[in-house]
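Fig. S4 source data, part A: sequence.
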Amino acid sequence: MRSKSKVCFFFQGQRFSLQNRSRLKGFIEKTLKAEGLNPGQLNYIFCSDREIRKINRTYLKHDYATDIITFDLSWQKEVTADIYISIDRVRENAKDLGVSIKNELHRVIFHGALHLCGYKDKKPAEIKIMRAKEEELLSKYGV
């Protein structure tokens, strides 16, 4: 019997298609394990620009919307997190980048997991590594 996934998806009033959820959950868990981590509870919360801006302002003191905010709640060796993703930003970024919403959504989902693996994106060298890892995961997943 297969164990129940510890990756959950929540939709705060957002209407969009997230297909093959079981496969995606397994892929995220496999990615964390490949990085030597033990997946705990990972909550992906899909929300609006308004909601993510409110979270950004309250917890990070930034007054703007962003595509993703990852709250690492890990305890000891178990990776646990709440990951907020603005569907409004994902749609806008996809349009600006000339990629499908599906591609951009998966990139952002993987981006959150990569943050939990210790990858950063503040400095140019870090961004380059993060983007390469995102592309690697997108390719492996087949988006």
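Fig. S4 source data, part B ends here. The CA atoms of residues 125 and 131 lie 10 Å apart.
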